[in-house]
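re: the backbone from monday

yeah here it is again, tokenized this time
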């Protein structure tokens, strides 16, 4: 628990420090235009966090998080016309799935275990002039949970590393449907190193979140 809190604290602190480095509190308060964006998303785990794992069966497995739908909310405001700050949190029904490695000579079925994934991030956004596009860079945090990561469901003594910290890179675009209604499309990657099964071999991960949301202004103008 203390390790998880420390990871979340580091992510939050990094986001705050990065934001403060690009704007003074007075300028941020003067130019902030708060906006909240609830969104639906799709989560895609591109790479396995375990490659060619052999748990004594003689069969090599690759294991990864499952692709899943997600919901979330994003809060943002501008520091200057070109730079903004965002905080985002999302929840996905992502569990665990394993498939037989191509290097295995034994033909067996893989497995799927239901789970969930909580994703949070603090980001800076960069808005080119006269454009509806924005670039995204920040710090992200992932927390795995559910039956897939509950040690009570496995052999006594089983342990997992249920959280990761990494970098966020992405871009977004705002499409104005009507003068008072717009849609935000975001594609972002959570880049991190992960070893949830504690094999001693951490793997580089690229988790993709594709989100579409409705931005709602919190200011009176």
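seq for it, each position gets an aa:
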């Amino acid at each position: 628990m203390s390790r998880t809190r420390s990871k979340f604290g580091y992510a939050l602190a990094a986001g705050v420090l990065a934001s403060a480095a690009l704007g003074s509190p007075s300028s941020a308060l003067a130019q902030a235009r708060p906006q909240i964006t609830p969104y639906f998303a799709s989560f895609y785990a591109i790479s396995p966090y375990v490659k060619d794992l052999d748990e004594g069966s003689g069969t090599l497995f690759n294991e990864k998080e499952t692709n899943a739908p997600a919901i979330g909310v994003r809060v943002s405001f501008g520091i200057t016309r070109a730079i903004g700050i965002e905080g985002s949190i999302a929840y996905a029904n992502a569990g665990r799935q394993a498939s037989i490695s191509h290097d295995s000579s034994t033909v067996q079925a893989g497995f799927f275990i239901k789970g969930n994934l909580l994703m949070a991030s603090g980001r800076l956004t960069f808005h080119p002039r006269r454009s509806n596009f924005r670039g995204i860079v920040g710090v992200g945090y992932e927390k795995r949970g559910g039956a897939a990561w509950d040690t009570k469901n496995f052999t006594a003594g089983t342990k997992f590393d249920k959280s990761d910290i990494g970098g966020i890179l992405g871009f977004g675009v705002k499409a104005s449907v009507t003068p008072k209604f717009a849609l935000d499309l975001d594609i972002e990657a959570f880049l991190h190193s992960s070893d949830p099964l504690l094999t001693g071999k951490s793997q580089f991960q690229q988790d993709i979140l594709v989100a579409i949301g409705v931005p709602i202004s919190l200011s009176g103008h």
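Confidence is low (pLDDT under 50) at residues 1-31. The longest strand covers residues 163-178.
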